[in-house]
Design a protein that fits this description.
Elements: H1 2-26, H2 35-51, H3 58-75, H4 82-95
Length: about 100
Amino acid sequence: MRTRNTHRHVRALLEETDNAYQILIDAGENPNIDFAGYACQTYFARLKRALGHADITFHQLEGVLRRVMQEHHAVRAEGHGWADFMASVITAEIANVSVSEPV
């Protein structure tokens, strides 16, 4: 049950973050940062809390986000929404992250 709730909460945060990022881009803003960086800059505390991993660092989470985005592009994740795919993989990866190991 915890995993399903975590997945749902992370997916909702990713969708919210993506919407905010797209609004910036559509408005002609140049945030000079990719989505992973933007997500961590603006939603780090909320993502960390949603993932239930209080010890994860900014750089670890940013690295996981970038890696999962590349994986999504590589496999094209047919049949999965972008945020759903991201939430599934991120939730699984973060569960295996040790604070001492870089991601």
